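User: Fold this one for me? It's N-acetyltransferase domain-containing protein.
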Amino acid sequence: MSREAAESLIVVRPAGVDDVPRLRDWACAMALETEHKQLDPATVEAGIRAVLDEPGRGAYLVAEHHGEAAGTLMLTYEWSDWRNGDWWWIQSVYVAPEHRRQGVYAALYRHVHARAEMTPRVCGLRLYVERDNAAAQRTYERLGMVDAGYRMYEAPTPGP
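Assistant: Here's what I get for N-acetyltransferase domain-containing protein.
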């Protein structure tokens, strides 16, 4: 089956409270896989619930393949005064290992891109990618994204 045909079998839907345990487990797995970080599951779960409880913070989407949850991403929003619009940030991307290379992320991305194009205040999509994650970078480029030329800096605070 072609990638396009496989992708057409994927349904993207908003995540709900019933998805929280799976989203928590996937977030912890993603952090371990990509950054070798062990996250506290209770903290991650509280963070996911905070987004579901306050939609202004963001949104989670779940991709289902043949009715089985196969992958997810989270959107967050950043106001741009330069553009008088919102950037939608794609974060917390995870595709279950048994569903990889089947168009799950592409279906999620295309869903988000179509929604963004239909939302007048959205000026574009952005995401972070690890410098050494060449496979992910190729995927994003295949979908039409380009390197924006920025480096990210941070200054953690004691916060939650």
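One thing worth pointing out: The mean pLDDT is 93.
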